[in-house]
Amino acid sequence: MLALACLISASAVTAQELPVEQIKSQIKAYKKDVRGPYHRIKWFCDDGTIREAKDPCPNEIGGIQHASLKSDVEKLGKKHHIFFGNLLVQNENEAFWDEKNNHSRLKQYQLVKFLQSNDDGWIYRRGQFYRGAMQSEDEQAWGLDFYKWLLKNNKHTQGQFFLLKQSLNDIPHSGDSNLAQKMRSESKVLGNEISSFMNLRIKIHGNPEKSDIASVESYVSKHNSGLSSGQKKAFNSLLSTMKEYYKPLDIKDIQGLSNQLFNPHKTKINELLTGYNDGLSSKEKIEVLGPVLMYIRQHFEALNSENDKLAALDISNKIEKSVFQNSQEWAPSDLYDMLQKIDYLSYVAAATGLIELWEYDRIKSTLGLYKHKKQLTIAELNKVLSTARSVVEWSAGMVKANYSDIVETYSQFEPLAYGFIDDKIRSSIALDLGNSVGILGKYISGKSSIKNEVIGVSKPATIRGLNPGYAFGELVVIEGSIENINFSKDKIYVFNRPPSGLKPVAGIMTVSEGNLVSHVQLLARNLGVPNAALSQENLDDLAKYNGKKVFYAVSTKGNVILKTEGQMSSEEKVLFSKVERSTNKITVPVDRIQLDQTDILNMREVDASDSGKLCGPKAANLSQLKSMFPDHVVEGFVIPFGIFRKHLDNQMSGQNMTYWEFLTQTYAQCEAMKKANKTENEIEAYQFKRLSTLRTAIINMDLNPDFIAQLRKNFKDAFNKPIGQVPVFLRSDTNMEDLKEFTGAGLNLTLFNVLAEQKIIEGIKKVWASPYMERSLKWRQKYLLNPEYVFPSILVIPGVNVDYSGVVVTTGINAGGKDDLTIAFSRGVGGAVDGQSAETRMVSKHNNLLLSPSREPSFLTLPKTGGTNREYTTFEDPILSEKNMQSIRDMVEQVRKKMPKQTGSDYKGPYDMEMGFENDKLWLFQIRPFVENKKASSSEYLKSITPKINYNQNIDLNSKI
Q1: Which residues form the Pyruvate phosphate dikinase AMP/ATP-binding domain (predicted)?
Q2: 3-class secondary structure for 797-810?
Q3: Prediction pTM value
Q4: CA distance 350 to 360
Q5: Which residue of 255, 473, 861, 940 lies most exposed, with the fewest beta carbons within 10 A?
């Protein structure tokens, strides 16, 4: 519903409170310690007592022996919820499942296992040899008991199919181990140590096949004389792991597990397995095993007991491993076979929990377009490609949704943690599905003349443009956290996910695009900033160009160019022949502002005609919506520009002048510096320093007593309760937002659900000061000629604790027609606008196309006590129902009819609307013009790189690929 700047700030503070340097120091020390993070061996008795190693628990009591942890390791858990322990037996079931913290402890256990495997034991480097620290049989028994406890309760398992399957690969319970991870980590260690082995290591990491065993054996034979005894031992271990990993599926092993199930599931799974034998081709094996995976996925919640569920999950994991291996051996020779492989691997992605079943139902007909056909058009092939690419993105998004919070926390003190998510994705069918989609994309690009020209990227077909534009500048590839990055307007950034508070930049490429209508995407679209989505593998490929000067362009059809400065054509160089490209800068219409209005206004006293006069467009348009749709808009009041301007006439603390004199003097000096030929950076530095002083002074100013009296009165009049008894939102609303040529979406501060009177008073001053934040200044100075005449008003409204909320743009963005709707929703309040991985749809009068499902694991709710609560969700059901979408259609139809008539506006373009649903009731929160950068979309250069495509061209499906 609203910008989350205050919450992002709060989470940044929490991250800073983590003693990162202390933890780094501890990790370093543990690696050298002969006991690692362990303290000493003790007996842990069943009656809760703890005894020394030489004093066993009495037989009549019973107990187990294992290591205790050092006190500073235990303190990390108690104080910061960081758990380095790799011992399961020391945990209580419920604490380890850690539901209230999004299963953090279980996920940390998995991550620690990964670090151990990939960093020579990590903090257990020497401690792993501490005799008696861990008893494998006790760990196995604990794991089995844990899963029986966990799977007994359907509440635990609801929506957690993917996490449960993943955890079973890491938590011992029946002698299983994560051989795929072990194989990658062992090859990685050897590759880092022996440069000539690196190519094979990359092959094993990125495209593993059974034939790799022979390749490694050949390598060892060829280089045997030059290998040390330690290296020979390491290669023997790797080969042993690979042979164990690539052992053929033992169907008797699977049948042994399926026979543990109660009927009808036992009979059905055994029936599905009857067609399997070792003589089948890889493709045929997948065709037999896939339906077993899907049967388990579809019937998992209905299984009778915890034993049935555990057996079913073990069956699923064993079969998934076999399907993964066989998919590498399935090498399509023609287009039909490639489409069939992509179709089937997408089916397996749904069957293994990488995408949800309802998501697969929405796309399976598109993926199956090739069936019973001899030809497909370019348009149809592009539709299949786009859908298949989505399956890969959604699958990667599922992994990130489950683990990114833990990875981001650990990465602050252990950079190796970043590899965990990549490892999980590469362990899944998403790896070969992505490879297959890349091959298909390259083939279709060749047939339709759509070609991405991207330096050093092995699979450019997986890159797609989001909004057009071109830029020249330094390429900055951010492989890790985006925290504390000092963004520059002259640089092009490649990162996993755009920060919500992104400052102006030259260009953007993201692995996780968030959604099409987030504030960052809308600002980028508005300013003509080129923006594209790419894969994690693409990002990894581009890392070697970090720091290089590059040219970057995205056409209106979405093809992407990224080349080094030396590769630029003369036409491309001309685009940047001046120091700065000319921009369509605009002037804030100061003559319309009525600063003599110094009384608070009820929303019912304001309408759209007051936008830019008394208040900003948020308040004016929402007030207009209140009169048009009174049952769908909350009550509220407006603090107009005039009240802020009146306060600027007060004496500024520490200065011999008023706030207004300080502000105007600042901009006058900037003009003088410009005339004196000072550099742009010098002028900018002076301005930001001065306005930072002004911002601090505004936050600390005393509000006028008459204004505070008005504030108290308007609370009673609007909300029938005194100030301090109803939590409200304080929404910044300036006169520079939502002009015809510019949207200021999300640039200034909004405060969530503020309750106490003093906090409301402090909040008003913070909102007034927010237009002078560096990010807000940089964005608007890129577009405005007179940025000093920016005045904030404030819209004060109560929060609605909606079930889900988001943005509706009344046109198709990047797809669809001008009358279609682009809809993005997330659960809770603040949905979609802040870059979340939202449920995004393209909706027409009768159709509803799913562009992407939500992958946002948490959401915010509004307690009556003020502030926000964070809750967690799963993805097994869509957010929006058909009833909700029909409500949206009906509302948009009414807005299109009523808005121009009732406002007298000549605006005929699309709208950007924020709304939410509470118990299926639609609430409107904002409406503004949807602004696109006309210069970018009409650029002659961008037209020249946009291919002309014959979408009706037919392609034979027996064509070689």
Answers
A1: 614-940
A2: EECCCCCEEEEEEC
A3: 0.82
A4: 6
A5: 940
Residue 595 phi, psi (nearest 5): -80, -5
The mean pLDDT value for 47-75 works out to 92
Given a contact cutoff of 8 angstroms between Cβ atoms, the answer to whether 634 and 800 are in contact is yes
In this structure, is residue 830 part of a structural domain?
Answer: yes
Number of neighbouring beta carbons within 10 Å of residue 674? 13
State pLDDT tens for residues 784-823.
Answer: 666 667 889 999 999 899 999 999 999 887 667 888 999 9
d(CA 961, CA 334): 5
Closest CA to 341 of 425, 399, 284: 284
SS (H, E, C) 453-494: EECCCCCHHHCEEEECEEEEEEEEECCCCCCCCCCCCCEEEE
Output the CA angle 616-618-624, nearest 5 degrees. Answer: 105
Q: Express each pLDDT in 450-469 by its tens digit.
A: 778 999 998 888 888 887 88
Question: Does 610 lie in the same domain as 560?
Answer: no
434 in the same domain as 478: no
The answer to whether residue 675 sits within a structural domain is yes
Where in the sequence is the domain holding 421, given as residue range(s)? 251-448
Q: How far apart are CA 852 and CA 513, in angstroms?
A: 11
Parallel, antiparallel, or unpaired for β 549-554 and 560-564? antiparallel
The domain boundary residue, chosen from 448, 477, 501: 448
pLDDT in tens, 72-87: 999 999 999 999 988 9
Beta-bridge partners for 580: none
- Mean predicted confidence (pLDDT) in 305-333: 94
Number of domains forming the structure of the chain: 5
* Residues 831, 911 within the same domain: yes
Residue 338 lies in a domain: yes
Say yes or no: 458 and 440 in one domain. no
Token match 């006190």: residue?
71
Exposed / middle / buried, residue 940 (Cβ in 10 Å: 0-12, 13-18, 19+): exposed
